[in-house]
């Protein structure tokens, strides 16, 4: 070796002792054992639905996908399909869970009708509660138009509606079909309103409708011109209540065709 080459002096105790000291020193980057991590809650259908409602409330219904939900629950998407068949069923389960919040006004909280019965304002109050529920979750109303909830809260809602219709003396066959009609109208109303509120051009569209109605040619559209001040009148609440009263009047007095509903 050349004379100017030097070597580092060995640590005290030799290389074997240095290796022993390194092995004994505590490691700060040691991997964490799985046993030390908090255990994940076991998956369940109710837990999945609860997580889906949280995601919907924070991000909107469009973000409630199986992949997004799996991330929320720290699991794989395939694990969710054991409990929920897909997004459509998941949306129906969300709707059913939220239907538990629908309230029926107590008899003391509503005015009596001319015949002394309070069943009609109570039923309208129930439908109003249902519609306001859909208002709170934009997107859910559109999903509700095609979703087919069949859970306990949906059955409770239908039971309450049938009970109130029976209290009002509505024939059983008309009440059976009427429930579907009333819920369809409430759902469509909520879907229309939430879509309108979400539109950035909603006000411009409304002004365009007003201009068109009030500016019609009376020779071509005489009936529109005569009713122009009334076609767009009234508060949303007043029109909402009137629409249900009109539907209920029709349900009470319109016979069901002979071939339905089924008695099965």
Automatic annotation (TrEMBL):
Record-linked InterPro entries: Homeodomain-like_sf, HTH-type_TetR-like_transc_reg, HTH_TetR, Repressor_TetR_C, Tet_transcr_reg_TetR-rel_C_sf
GO biological process, one term: regulation of DNA-templated transcription
GO terms for MF: DNA binding
Ranges for domain HTH tetR-type: 42-102
UniProt keyword annotation of Transcription present: yes
Renumbered residue ranges of the record's region Disordered: 1-43
Biased composition (Low complexity): 13-28
Keywords associated with the record: DNA-binding, Transcription, Transcription regulation
Pfam family name, one: TetR_C_1
DNA-binding region range list: 65-84
Compositionally biased spans, kind Basic and acidic residues: 29-39
Name under which the protein is recorded: TetR/AcrR family transcriptional regulator
Origin species: Streptomyces evansiae
């Amino acid at each position: 070796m050349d004379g100017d080459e030097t070597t580092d002096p060995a640590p005290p105790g030799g290389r074997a002792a240095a290796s022993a000291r390194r092995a004994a020193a505590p490691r700060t980057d040691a991997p964490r054992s799985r046993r030390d991590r908090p255990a994940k809650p076991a998956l369940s259908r109710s837990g999945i639905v609860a997580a889906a409602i949280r995601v919907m409330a924070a991000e909107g219904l469009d973000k409630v996908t199986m992949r997004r939900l799996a991330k929320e629950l720290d699991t794989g998407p395939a694990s969710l399909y054991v409990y929920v068949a897909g997004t459509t069923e998941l949306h129906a389960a969300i709707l059913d869970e939220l239907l538990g919040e629908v309230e029926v006004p107590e008899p003391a909280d509503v005015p009596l009708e001319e015949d002394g019965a309070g069943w009609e304002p109570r039923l309208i109050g129930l439908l109003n509660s249902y519609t306001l529920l859909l208002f709170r979750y934009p997107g859910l109303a559109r999903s509700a138009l095609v979703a087919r909830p069949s859970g306990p809260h949906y059955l409770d809602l239908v039971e309450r509606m049938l009970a109130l219709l029976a209290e009002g003396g509505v024939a059983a066959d008309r009440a059976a079909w009427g429930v579907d009609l009333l819920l369809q109208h409430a759902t469509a109303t909520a879907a229309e309103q939430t879509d309108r509120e979400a539109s950035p051009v909603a006000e411009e569209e409304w002004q365009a409708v007003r201009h068109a109605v009030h500016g019609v040619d009376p020779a071509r559209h005489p009936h529109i011109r005569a009713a122009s001040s009334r076609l767009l009148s009234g508060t949303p609440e007043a029109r909402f209540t009137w629409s249900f009263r009109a539907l209920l009047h029709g349900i009470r007095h319109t016979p069901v065709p002979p071939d339905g509903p089924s008695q099965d």
